[in-house]
TrEMBL record:
GO terms for biological process: cap-dependent translational initiation; formation of cytoplasmic translation initiation complex. The RNA gate region regulates mRNA cap recognition to prevent promiscuous mRNA-binding before assembly of eif3d into the full eukaryotic translation initiation factor 3 (eIF-3) complex. This is Eukaryotic translation initiation factor 3 subunit D. The lineage of its organism: Eukaryota, Viridiplantae, Streptophyta, Embryophyta, Tracheophyta. Residues 88-166, 533-584 are annotated as: Disordered. It is found in: Cytoplasm. Residues 289-303 are annotated as: RNA gate. Transmembrane segments: none annotated. One of its GO terms (cellular component) is eukaryotic translation initiation factor 3 complex. InterPro entries: eIF3d. Belongs to the eIF-3 subunit D family. It comes from Urochloa decumbens.
Length: 584
């Protein structure tokens, strides 16, 4: 039997099939030689044959064979196909997109397959999904860091306590967010003018520039030298300058530095502002937080809350202040040679030994009507190779536990000094910025930073000097991204706000949680002895040392030289004296 080509209509009038072709005889009841695959009009047409694709499941081959090559009901479908040809229209010829699988179950259960051929649309959707997932991860991490920075420790944490008790009768005059401080800029017109220099300073000992962790020096204690933390209105020199109308705004370098570096602060602080006539006085309270140095203020991990813990925020602040004071006196030449200035130390009484410090009273002109006078401190003098005299500021960074910071100074200072400084800039950004601002205000030619560490992580009385590094203040300010124009812009904005207020007393408080400051109007007798405030809890009150306690501490210091077990007890009295001197 030969091959049946089927019925072919003949058109005698021209090319193509005739207009009315006769139906083949096979449609009447015979079988058609060409098979026809039935399909639904809702199905999308795909490729005829694709040998590169793998079936998504074990039953895919059977399903495909049953649906595509099923000739059941062929006679009915052939008759219906010719009737529906006129209504058929091709809508989409693309294969259906495959949905991506996510999750660990699909990842571990899928079988190894040959490289698949992917459509461009599927690839584009996969890339968009990856970008969206990465964006959500970054957003979550950023919110987590922000929440951890400003809410760590909860409301009961010491970092979340206000530095001053806000009284209900105080009224809020201004509320300034830190985001507005970052946009400020002000350039001081002229160089500052030195009005007066008081005190006496000693020369810096250059032998400390050669101190290394392998040749460390023990930190000594200077019990006989007194350190003064006098506020603005208690300074007799500033009182005299104010009576002579030398300026309209008066402050100290510590207070100005706190204002200039306010956006970097996390813990709460406060500044008392008094408007008297056309003059402004920026003061600090007795026992203010500005008298103590903060430790790990900008670190990610919070410090313990219990004050009896030697690594709590309060204990470390007292220890850092004690270390900083003793370090500033140990690195000096103690040969009796001092550099004196116009007047002696205005706070030391006759026969009292004051620490090596010089007070420079400098005046800046903010505008035609406003000028500022600030008392700035320098701690030592030095002679450069050309024989010219230089002013120095001396400060110390202290290491209390390498496991907390993650960097061991004794191992990294010689080989990775930059990593040590970068860690300190991350954990103590506000403290380093304040020291730099004070050096710039004082006009210091060099600022010396010492690295002081505990002899043992659990011994907070004995320390060692590991290294001393010198920086030029302007270069170091550029290194830590401290903009002088922005610093003066913050001060100028605060002065302008206070100049619009009436006469009276105000207090500027850093919010303990949010990055902002609030300006309160307070009674004129606030923060004075006759002003009754809410008393502090008994465990938070600092008790003054009596003469009997001091004598006992001296006996314990003498006994410590003979008995090694009494060293820690003897040092306890010395640390108490440092706290007393700081409060004074």
């Amino acid at each position: 039997m030969g091959f049946d080509v089927g019925f072919v209509p003949y058109n005698p009038d021209g090319w193509g099939p005739p207009e009315a072709a006769a139906a083949p005889a096979s449609l009447g009841g015979g079988s058609v030689s060409v098979p026809f695959a039935p399909f639904s009009r809702s199905d999308k047409l795909g490729r005829i044959a694709d040998w590169t694709r793998n079936p998504p499941g074990p039953g895919a081959f059977a399903a495909a064979r049953d649906t595509v090559f099923d000739f059941a009901g062929l006679e009915d479908s052939v008759g219906l196909a010719s009737a529906d040809d006129a209504s058929f229209r091709l809508v989409d010829g693309k294969p259906p997109p495959r949905h991506p699988r996510f999750g660990p179950r699909w990842r571990f259960q899928q079988r190894p397959q040959l490289p698949q051929r992917r459509d461009e649309e599927v690839e584009a959707r996969r890339r968009e999904a990856e970008k969206e997932r990465a964006r959500r991860d970054r957003h979550w991490q950023q919110n987590r860091r922000t929440h951890h920075q400003f809410n760590r420790g909860g409301p009961s944490s010491s970092s979340a306590k206000s530095s001053v008790d806000i009284q209900p009768e105080w009224s809020v005059k201004e509320q300034i967010p830190f985001s507005s401080f970052s946009k400020l800029s002000f350039a001081v017109a002229d160089q500052p003018e030195d009005l007066l220099v008081c005190g006496a300073v000693e020369f810096y000992d250059r032998a400390f520039d050669r101190v290394t962790p392998r040749a460390e020096r023990r930190l000594e204690r200077f019990k006989s030298r007194n350190f003064f933390k006098v506020t603005t209105t208690d300074d007799p020199v500033i009182r005299r300058l104010a009576e002579n109308d030398t300026a309209t705004v008066f402050a100290t370098d510590t207070i100005l530095a706190a204002l200039m570096c306010a956006p970097r602060s996390v813990q709460s602080w406060d500044i008392v502002i008094q408007r008297v006539g056309n003059k402004l006085f920026f003061d600090k309270r007795d026992g203010s937080q500005l008298d103590l140095l903060t430790v790990n203020e900008t670190a990610q991990e919070p410090l313990p809350e219990a004050k009896e813990d030697i690594n709590s925020a309060h204990s470390l602040a007292v220890e850092a202040t004690y270390v900083n004071q003793n370090f500033s006196q140990q690195v000096l030449l103690r040969n009796g040679e001092k550099v004196t200035f116009d007047e002696p130390n205005p706070f030391a009484t006759e026969g009292e030994e004051a620490a090596s410090v010089a007070y420079r009273y400098r005046r800046w002109k903010l505008d035609d009507e406003t000028s500022l006078v600030a008392r700035c401190e320098v701690h030592a003098v030095n002679t450069d190779p050309r024989g010219e005299r230089q002013f120095l500021t001396i400060n110390a960074l202290n290491e209390f536990d390498p496991k907390v910071t993650g960097v061991d100074w004794r191992k990294k200072l010689e080989t990775q000094r930059g990593a040590v400084l970068a860690t300190e800039l991350k954990n103590n950004a506000n403290r380093l910025a304040r020291w730099t601002a004070q050096a710039l205000l004082a006009g210091a030619d060099m600022m010396k930073l010492g690295y002081v560490s505990r002899l043992h992580p659990r011994d907070h009385y004995n320390h060692s000097i590991l290294s001393v590094i010198g920086y030029k203040p302007r270069d170091f300010a550029a290194q830590i991204n401290l903009n002088t124009a922005n610093m003066w812009g913050i001060v100028k904005s605060i002065v302008d706000v206070c100049m619009k207020l009436g006469e009276g007393k105000y207090v500027l408080v850093k919010d303990p949680v949010k990055p902002q400051v609030r300006l309160y109007e307070v009674p004129n007798d606030a923060f004075e002895n006759d002003y009754v405030e809410e008393p502090l809890p008994e465990e938070e009150q600092v008790r003054p040392f009596s003469e009997d306690v001091d004598a006992t501490a001296q006996e314990m210091d003498a006994a410590a030289e003979a008995e090694a077990t009494a060293t820690t007890t003897g040092a306890d009295g010395d640390a108490g004296k440092s706290v007393e001197a700081t409060a004074a």
